[in-house]
User: Fold this.
Amino acid sequence: DMCLVKEIPEIVEMGIDSVKIEGRLKTEYYLASVVNAYRNAIDDYMANPEGYDYTKYLKELEKVKTRGLTTFYFNDRNNRDFQEYEGKQYNAHYEFGGKVTEYNEDKTLIEIRNKLSVGDTLELIIPNEIKPQAFTIEKLYDSETREEISTVNPGKQGQTVILEIPFEVKKGWILRRKK
Assistant:
């Protein structure tokens, strides 16, 4: 996958007005992570060009399940390291946990995308903040019976679970699970 977060200063200085992020056939998790990283990188560079450090944005991009990262031909017209024929997916450390569908002060409804269990570490991707907010699942509740459960596995589209998140969240925010 093309990764030009290191080249943001050059892209901005070229006078580029917009950056296209490929989103076809990608999950909401992928899009939220990548768009948030690039938006923060561009905004931070514009606010303080001398202090721009691409590594914190790259760390976020590396948490997304993707193919290997490359700059394609951006800096090197002779680059041959740009095609992944085997279709390998990288990042065995994080996966899409779910999406906030409803927030309540003490319990939050989550549309799950992968298995969640009490004790799992989740990271909330917060729009316009590069550092995700992490927390551990202390309690899970079945969204239909309201009974406390220890694990939930996705089995149907739109499946939800209730969990306690120790800070305020907003509808549509994305959660990733640390494996």
